[in-house]
Write a structure and sequence with these properties.
The chain is of the alpha/beta class and 562 residues long. The protein folds into 3 domains: 170 residues, Thiamin diphosphate (ThDP)-binding fold, Pyr/PP domains (Rossmann fold); 167 residues, Rossmann fold (3-Layer(aba) Sandwich); 176 residues, Rossmann fold (3-Layer(aba) Sandwich). The protein is built from 21 helices and 19 strands.
């Protein structure tokens, strides 16, 4: 038999080499029996590795890194329970259009697809559990399929709308040895794709906006993911149109801009402000429950809706639907508006500024009448303590509900759990910090996570990995002795609450057990503690014992459309 001049390569090594050729420079993972060949292949790779302690946290870590870089972040997990434990994190990644590339091990091929033999970790159809959550799934059945399938998965993850994808590879394919030189020897070029909006629809949209008397813009997370902030600003200025941002789109339009109508999307004044537009340009939001004030939004004018996901167009509200990437579509409309509106209308600007002033004043008058000064002060203290360029990562906690409306992102990352799953904040902040590791930042980019004491329990296992990697993550835990959000909901709906008061650990002692600097501060000390933590090296836990109240809902006297 002729001798090959090439070194043999295993299927697992080929996976890692392909990821490197596609441009990956770091991976997140947690090993298991059927994934060991993949992890063995990491030894000969220059990929930077973050080892999580729980698969769901691993998913959030990969999600946080992917949201930060905008590029796919590989997530390596084992088969069966290991893979399934990551599902909630993948749901969050899907909601946020975050390109997590999940590569999971499988039992040997003879145990896949109904060939039930009783392998450890065997599921009847593991892949089926992920089909309704990720964009697409692949099952690699031979070494020859590794390069094309992983390349296709990478391409799908970044194609607009971006999102998580799933690739499984059986144990026997991982350990299979290939003698031929099939390994990628150069970079594999993959470019993001997006649906193209027909010129006719772009022209109609531009005509509607140019003729509008009270145009307004509603900007969601799709603006952030596509990097469309500059195009959004250009259209707002051209139309003199106020911009309201959702919690997902908060960092796309800074509140210091005169045309910012902020983002109090759960206040009825903002709902009515958007309703009053004769043409409302909706970009990168599906107009779901949370972005329509619980489906009580009833627009009076026309809606132009831009989204890369065509399935959300007109889903809840009739619209002129433009299925396309936010940046490309806004840029195309902006160029058409330059021809239709060669100069800005100063009178329209004054009317827009007056309407914004009235809106914001009305919101604050209502909030100020509710004796919520302490809650407003917590938001203000956090905002002033955290530099603009440092990202914040919010778990499902009462202060996060406040932040959805009251947080001025100032252009920095403002990331949160958009599907309502607990445990997002800390691991997402870890992932964002991990994504920033380089020669200048060996301990990662400074990030801040905000959690409640109940939701924080989902994350505590990865205090171990955080301590091991010593990343620059500040974790602020607001301790009210339970699930404060649910407690409030139950009290309002049923007159009392049950199953929401919790015995929680001493987070300061817990942090110390992991070797992480930890302290308990009073609310008045929060600003200085957070500022000091961010300016120091390594992780820190700051615990704030405080009961936080949420502002009163304003939609209850309206009938929802659904």
């Amino acid at each position: 038999m002729p001798q090959s001049d090439h070194n043999p390569i295993t299927g697992g090594q080929l996976v890692i080499n392909t990821l490197r050729a596609l441009g990956a420079d770091r991976v997140v993972g947690l090993p298991g029996q059927h994934a060991l060949p993949l992890f063995d292949a990491l030894r000969g790779s220059d990929l930077q590795y973050y080892g999580a302690r729980v698969e769901n946290n691993a998913g959030f870590i990969a999600d946080g890194a992917a949201r930060t870089t905008g590029s796919p972040v590989p997530l390596l997990l084992s088969a069966g329970p290991g893979a399934l434990t990551a599902l909630p994190a993948l749901q969050e990644a899907a909601a946020a259009s975050s390109p997590v590339l999940l590569i999971v091990a499988q039992v040997p091929e003879s145990g896949i697809g109904g060939g039930v033999h009783g392998f450890l970790h065997e599921l009847y159809d593991q892949r089926a559990h992920f089909r309704d959550t990720v964009k697409k799934t692949w099952s690699i059945r031979s070494v020859d399929q590794v390069i094309p399938m992983i390349t296709q998965a990478w391409q799908t993850a970044i194609a607009a709308p971006a999102g998580p994808v799933y690739v499984e590879i059986p144990y026997d394919v991982q350990i299979a040895v290939e003698q031929e030189p099939i390994a990628p020897t150069r970079a594999i070029e993959v470019f993001p794709t997006a649906p193209i909006v027909p010129n006719q629809l772009l022209n109609i949209a531009a005509d509607l906006l140019a003729a509008a008397k009270t145009p307004r813009i509603y900007a969601g997370g799709g603006v952030v993911r596509s990097g469309a902030a500059e195009a959004l600003h250009a259209i707002s200025e051209r139309l003199q149109a106020p911009v309201v941002t959702t919690f997902g789109g908060r960092s796309s339009f800074e509140w210091s801009h005169p045309l910012s109508a902020q983002g109090w999307i759960e206040d009825i004044d903002t709902t009515e402000f958007l309703e009053e537009a004769d043409v409302l340009l909706v970009v990168g939001t599906g107009l779901g429950e949370l972005t329509t004030n619980y489906f009580t939004f009833r627009p009076k004018g026309k809606i132009i809706q831009i989204d890369a996901d065509a399935s959300v167009l007109g889903r809840n509200y009739p619209s002129l639907g433009l299925a396309g990437d936010a940046k490309e579509t806004l840029t195309a409309i902006s160029s058409r508006l330059e021809m239709r509106l060669p100069s800005a209308d100063p009178e329209r600007r004054q009317r827009a500024l007056a309407s914004i002033e009235q809106l914001v004043a009305g919101i604050h008058k209502r909030i100020d009448a509710q004796s919520l000064q302490a809650e407003q002060q917590l938001i203000a203290d956090l905002r002033s303590a955290i530099p603009d360029q440092i990202g914040t990562y919010w778990d499902m906690t009462i202060l996060a509900y406040w932040a959805w409306s009251a947080w001025d992102a100032r252009g920095g990352a403002f990331e949160n759990a958009q599907c309502g799953g607990l445990g997002f904040g800390l691991p997402a902040a870890i992932g964002a910090s991990f994504a920033g590791i380089n020669g200048d930042n060996p301990l990662g980019t400074p990030t801040v996570a905000i959690s409640g004491d109940g939701g924080g329990l989902y994350s505590v296992a990865d205090l171990a990995s955080l301590a091991q990697e010593n990343l620059n993550v500040t974790w602020v835990v607001f301790d009210d002795g339970g699930y404060g959000v649910l407690r409030g909901y139950m009290d309002a709906a049923f007159g009392e609450h049950v199953a929401t008061d919790l015995a929680v650990p001493d987070y300061v002692a817990l942090g110390a057990a992991f070797g992480i600097k930890s302290r308990r501060v009073e609310p008045a000390e929060l600003h200085d503690a957070v500022a000091e933590s961010i300016s120091s090296q390594g992780p820190e836990i700051i615990v704030v014992p405080v009961a936080i109240e949420l502002f009163e809902p304003t939609h209850l006297n309206r009938e929802p459309i659904l």
